[in-house]
Amino acid sequence: MNQHASPPPAHATGPADPEHAEHPHPQHREHPEQPSNLITPATGTTDPTPDPALTSTPGPSSTWHHLGILAHSTEGAALSFLSFCQEGFHRLGDHDHPDVTLDYIPFGRSMPAWDAGDHDTVRRTLAASVTRLARTGAAFFICPDNTAHLALERPGDALALPGLHIAEVVADQAARDGRTRVAVLGTAYTMAGDVYPRALAARGLTAELPSPQDRRTINDIIFRELVNGVFTDHSRRAYVDIIERLATERGCDAVALACTEIPLLITPADSPLPTLDSTRLLSSAAFEAATGARPFPTWRGGPTTPREP
């Protein structure tokens, strides 16, 4: 299967499944349901106590916070890792950035739960990854997967680490930019969910969704092409046309690219509206949190109240 090649991140603890994006493709191979009591392979325990040898590194980075990336879709996690490191290169100099660890329980193991609408089971799988990140010495986490936040917002035990919420980060940027009506493009699950409408509404902004037919087009292109590393002019034109309709017919003044593959197809230069790239915005916010340039996150799963600073 044609797939983007990205260098593996340091400390990655799980294999990547290149066939899936932010939520399950309707046609998939069967996987056993992920058990709720996942354990860390290295120790056979869910104890999040970090290994002292991993909690700090010598030099300037000892004053920075270690980031954990909770991967749930392959390309989104790879883009998040790369953009976080590149943020460091840009702001700190060549080859420098805060410590970062990526953990990835293969997405396919959550597919039966996604298909069944069982977000609580998905949350337990994601929580197990957060626990493993805590054991590596990570101080906080991000999840560069928009749809996963439907599960992360479910009630449950507090996650082992605090994290930045992707929709809160995007909504904050939209508010700073002075936007009032934001188009939301993503997977069918994300567009049908309330994660983005609620985050935007909390800042006095309106979320606008494409028409049902346009939603099907967006979702079909994501799963037939984008997750397979296929980026065609025909699909780019289809997305541009949808964004143009949202601008002219709905009065949108920005578009949230709320699926991790969409920024690989639609660049700011392509879009008729200013773009809000959820993956890169999240990575930039993570860099700022890691270096003390923004308040440290406090969200540990569940509903996002109070909202992130």
UniProtKB/TrEMBL annotation:
<keyword id="KW-0413">Isomerase</keyword>
<comment type="similarity">
    <text>Belongs to the aspartate/glutamate racemases family.</text>
</comment>
<feature type="compositionally biased region" description="Basic and acidic residues">
    <location>
        <begin position="17"/>
        <end position="33"/>
    </location>
</feature>
<dbReference type="Pfam" id="PF01177">
    <property type="entry name" value="Asp_Glu_race"/>
</dbReference>
<dbReference type="GO" id="GO:0016853">
    <property type="term" value="F:isomerase activity"/>
</dbReference>
<feature type="compositionally biased region" description="Low complexity">
    <location>
        <begin position="40"/>
        <end position="58"/>
    </location>
</feature>
<feature type="compositionally biased region" description="Pro residues">
    <location>
        <begin position="1"/>
        <end position="10"/>
    </location>
</feature>
<dbReference type="InterPro" id="IPR004380">
    <property type="entry name" value="Asp_race"/>
</dbReference>
<dbReference type="InterPro" id="IPR015942">
    <property type="entry name" value="Asp/Glu/hydantoin_racemase"/>
</dbReference>
<dbReference type="InterPro" id="IPR001920">
    <property type="entry name" value="Asp/Glu_race"/>
</dbReference>
<protein>
    <submittedName>
        <fullName>Amino acid racemase</fullName>
        <ecNumber>5.1.1.-</ecNumber>
    </submittedName>
</protein>
<feature type="region of interest" description="Disordered">
    <location>
        <begin position="1"/>
        <end position="61"/>
    </location>
</feature>
